[in-house]
Protein backbone atom coordinates (compact mmCIF):
# COMPACT_ATOMS: atom_id res chain seq x y z
CA UNK A 1 0.00 0.00 0.00
CA UNK A 2 2.85 2.36 0.81
CA UNK A 3 4.20 1.78 -2.68
CA UNK A 4 1.03 3.41 -4.09
CA UNK A 5 0.80 6.29 -1.64
CA UNK A 6 4.24 7.77 -2.28
CA UNK A 7 3.81 7.94 -6.09
CA UNK A 8 0.28 9.35 -5.69
CA UNK A 9 1.58 12.08 -3.39
CA UNK A 10 4.38 12.84 -5.85
CA UNK A 11 1.91 13.06 -8.74
CA UNK A 12 -0.45 15.28 -6.73
CA UNK A 13 2.43 17.53 -5.73
CA UNK A 14 3.58 17.72 -9.36
CA UNK A 15 0.07 18.70 -10.48
CA UNK A 16 -0.13 21.41 -7.82
CA UNK A 17 3.23 22.81 -8.96
CA UNK A 18 2.09 22.82 -12.60
CA UNK A 19 -1.19 24.55 -11.76
CA UNK A 20 0.52 27.18 -9.61
CA UNK A 21 3.21 27.77 -12.22
CA UNK A 22 0.59 28.25 -14.94
CA UNK A 23 -1.34 30.71 -12.75
CA UNK A 24 1.85 32.70 -12.19
CA UNK A 25 2.63 32.76 -15.92
CA UNK A 26 -0.94 33.86 -16.71
CA UNK A 27 -0.79 36.66 -14.12
CA UNK A 28 2.58 37.85 -15.44
CA UNK A 29 1.27 37.88 -19.01
CA UNK A 30 -1.84 39.83 -17.93
CA UNK A 31 0.41 42.45 -16.32
CA UNK A 32 2.54 42.65 -19.48
CA UNK A 33 -0.60 43.03 -21.57
CA UNK A 34 -1.80 45.78 -19.24
CA UNK A 35 1.49 47.63 -19.54
CA UNK A 36 1.36 47.30 -23.31
CA UNK A 37 -2.07 48.99 -23.24
CA UNK A 38 -0.70 51.89 -21.21
CA UNK A 39 2.31 52.16 -23.49
CA UNK A 40 0.09 52.40 -26.58
CA UNK A 41 -2.04 55.15 -25.02
CA UNK A 42 1.03 57.08 -23.88
CA UNK A 43 2.46 56.86 -27.40
CA UNK A 44 -0.80 58.17 -28.87
CA UNK A 45 -0.76 61.07 -26.43
CA UNK A 46 2.88 61.75 -27.19
CA UNK A 47 2.10 61.86 -30.90
CA UNK A 48 -0.69 64.41 -30.27
CA UNK A 49 1.51 66.79 -28.25
CA UNK A 50 3.43 68.41 -31.16
CA UNK A 51 0.13 69.38 -32.82
CA UNK A 52 -1.17 70.82 -29.56
CA UNK A 53 2.04 72.76 -28.93
CA UNK A 54 2.05 74.13 -32.49
CA UNK A 55 -1.57 75.19 -32.15
CA UNK A 56 -0.89 77.08 -28.92
CA UNK A 57 2.44 78.45 -30.15
CA UNK A 58 0.82 80.51 -32.87
CA UNK A 59 -1.43 82.26 -30.34
CA UNK A 60 0.77 82.39 -27.26
CA UNK A 61 4.29 82.92 -28.51
CA UNK A 62 5.38 84.59 -25.26
CA UNK A 63 4.40 81.51 -23.22
CA UNK A 64 7.66 79.96 -24.33
CA UNK A 65 8.48 78.36 -20.93
CA UNK A 66 5.36 76.20 -20.82
CA UNK A 67 5.73 75.16 -24.46
CA UNK A 68 9.39 74.28 -23.94
CA UNK A 69 8.61 72.33 -20.76
CA UNK A 70 5.95 70.22 -22.50
CA UNK A 71 8.30 69.47 -25.38
CA UNK A 72 11.19 68.54 -23.08
CA UNK A 73 9.03 66.35 -20.85
CA UNK A 74 7.63 64.58 -23.91
CA UNK A 75 11.16 63.82 -25.09
CA UNK A 76 12.22 62.62 -21.64
CA UNK A 77 9.22 60.30 -21.36
CA UNK A 78 9.81 58.83 -24.82
CA UNK A 79 13.51 58.26 -24.07
CA UNK A 80 12.79 55.92 -21.15
CA UNK A 81 12.69 52.16 -21.78
CA UNK A 82 9.17 50.80 -22.14
CA UNK A 83 9.60 48.39 -19.23
CA UNK A 84 10.80 51.04 -16.73
CA UNK A 85 7.36 51.31 -15.13
CA UNK A 86 8.30 53.46 -12.14
CA UNK A 87 10.38 55.93 -14.14
CA UNK A 88 7.79 56.08 -16.91
CA UNK A 89 5.05 56.74 -14.35
CA UNK A 90 6.98 59.70 -12.94
CA UNK A 91 7.85 61.11 -16.37
CA UNK A 92 4.31 60.71 -17.69
CA UNK A 93 2.84 62.30 -14.56
CA UNK A 94 5.10 65.32 -15.00
CA UNK A 95 4.06 65.48 -18.65
CA UNK A 96 0.38 65.30 -17.69
CA UNK A 97 0.81 68.20 -15.28
CA UNK A 98 2.60 70.28 -17.92
CA UNK A 99 -0.12 69.47 -20.46
CA UNK A 100 -2.68 70.65 -17.92
CA UNK A 101 -0.86 73.97 -17.65
CA UNK A 102 -0.74 74.21 -21.44
CA UNK A 103 -4.49 73.66 -21.76
CA UNK A 104 -5.18 76.18 -18.99
CA UNK A 105 -3.22 78.74 -21.00
CA UNK A 106 -6.04 78.66 -23.54
CA UNK A 107 -8.25 80.44 -21.02
CA UNK A 108 -6.11 83.57 -21.44
CA UNK A 109 -6.45 83.53 -25.22
CA UNK A 110 -10.05 83.83 -26.45
CA UNK A 111 -9.01 83.39 -30.10
CA UNK A 112 -7.24 80.15 -29.21
CA UNK A 113 -10.23 78.91 -27.21
CA UNK A 114 -12.42 79.52 -30.25
CA UNK A 115 -10.03 77.78 -32.66
CA UNK A 116 -11.63 74.64 -34.04
CA UNK A 117 -8.26 72.94 -34.38
CA UNK A 118 -7.34 73.63 -30.76
CA UNK A 119 -10.76 72.51 -29.50
CA UNK A 120 -10.43 69.27 -31.47
CA UNK A 121 -6.94 68.64 -30.10
CA UNK A 122 -8.09 69.47 -26.58
CA UNK A 123 -10.97 66.97 -26.89
CA UNK A 124 -8.62 64.31 -28.24
CA UNK A 125 -6.26 64.93 -25.34
CA UNK A 126 -9.11 64.68 -22.84
CA UNK A 127 -10.31 61.42 -24.40
CA UNK A 128 -6.77 60.08 -24.38
CA UNK A 129 -6.31 60.91 -20.69
CA UNK A 130 -9.48 58.91 -19.95
CA UNK A 131 -8.16 55.97 -21.96
CA UNK A 132 -4.82 56.16 -20.14
CA UNK A 133 -6.65 56.05 -16.81
CA UNK A 134 -8.64 52.97 -17.92
CA UNK A 135 -5.46 51.26 -19.12
CA UNK A 136 -3.75 52.21 -15.87
CA UNK A 137 -6.52 50.68 -13.77
CA UNK A 138 -6.39 47.47 -15.83
CA UNK A 139 -2.61 47.27 -15.51
CA UNK A 140 -2.62 47.95 -11.78
CA UNK A 141 -5.29 45.26 -11.30
CA UNK A 142 -3.21 42.77 -13.26
CA UNK A 143 -0.11 43.69 -11.24
CA UNK A 144 -2.09 43.32 -8.01
CA UNK A 145 -3.13 39.79 -9.02
CA UNK A 146 0.45 38.90 -9.97
CA UNK A 147 1.78 40.29 -6.69
CA UNK A 148 -0.77 38.34 -4.68
CA UNK A 149 0.34 35.12 -6.35
CA UNK A 150 4.04 35.91 -5.99
CA UNK A 151 3.74 36.77 -2.32
CA UNK A 152 1.08 34.35 -1.02
CA UNK A 153 1.43 30.77 0.13
CA UNK A 154 1.82 28.22 -1.51
CA UNK A 155 2.51 29.89 -4.86
CA UNK A 156 5.38 31.91 -3.32
CA UNK A 157 7.25 28.62 -2.85
CA UNK A 158 7.27 28.25 -6.63
CA UNK A 159 7.40 31.91 -7.67
CA UNK A 160 10.67 32.94 -6.10
CA UNK A 161 12.79 29.94 -7.22
CA UNK A 162 11.42 30.27 -10.77
CA UNK A 163 12.19 33.99 -11.00
CA UNK A 164 8.73 35.50 -10.62
CA UNK A 165 8.93 38.90 -8.96
CA UNK A 166 6.28 41.39 -7.88
CA UNK A 167 5.34 43.94 -10.53
CA UNK A 168 5.55 47.70 -10.13
CA UNK A 169 2.33 49.70 -10.01
CA UNK A 170 1.85 52.65 -12.34
CA UNK A 171 1.17 55.22 -9.65
CA UNK A 172 2.04 58.62 -8.29
CA UNK A 173 4.81 58.52 -5.72
CA UNK A 174 4.91 62.19 -4.81
CA UNK A 175 1.98 63.78 -2.98
CA UNK A 176 2.71 67.07 -4.75
CA UNK A 177 1.91 65.39 -8.07
CA UNK A 178 -1.62 64.64 -6.82
CA UNK A 179 -2.35 68.31 -6.17
CA UNK A 180 -4.05 70.49 -8.71
CA UNK A 181 -1.36 72.37 -10.63
CA UNK A 182 -1.04 76.09 -10.00
CA UNK A 183 -0.96 77.98 -13.26
CA UNK A 184 0.49 81.47 -13.36
CA UNK A 185 -0.42 83.61 -16.33
Please describe the topology of this protein:
Layout: H1 2-59, H2 64-79, H3 85-105, H4 110-114, H5 116-151, H6 155-159, H7 175-178
Helix pairs in contact: 1-2, 1-3, 1-5, 2-3
Describe this structure in words.
The protein is an all-alpha fold and 185 residues long. The protein has one domain. Helices cover 78% and strands 0% of the residues. It contains seven helices and no strands. Helix 2 packs antiparallel against helix 3. It is rod-shaped and about 90 Å long. Residues 175-185 have low confidence and may be disordered.
Highlighted features:
185 residues; mainly alpha; rod-shaped
First-residue to last-residue Cα separation: 85 Å
Mean pLDDT: 82
In DSSP terms, counting alpha (H) and pi (I) runs of 4 or more, how many helices?
7
Percent of residues in beta strands?
A: under 5%
Radius of gyration: 23 Å
Total count of strands: 0
- How many discrete structural domains? 1
Shape annotation: rod-shaped
Low-confidence stretches: 175-185
- Fraction of residues in helix: over 70%
The ordered H/E elements are HHHHHHH
Structural class: mainly alpha
Which sheet architecture does the biggest sheet show?
none
Q: What's the quick description here?
A:
The protein is an all-alpha fold. It contains seven helices and no strands. The relative contact order is 0.15.
Amino acid sequence: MLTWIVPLIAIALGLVIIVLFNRLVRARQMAREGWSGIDVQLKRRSDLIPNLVDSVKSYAAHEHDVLTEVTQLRGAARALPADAVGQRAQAETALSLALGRLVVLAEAYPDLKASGNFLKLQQQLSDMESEIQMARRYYNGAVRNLNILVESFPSNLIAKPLGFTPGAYFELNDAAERATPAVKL
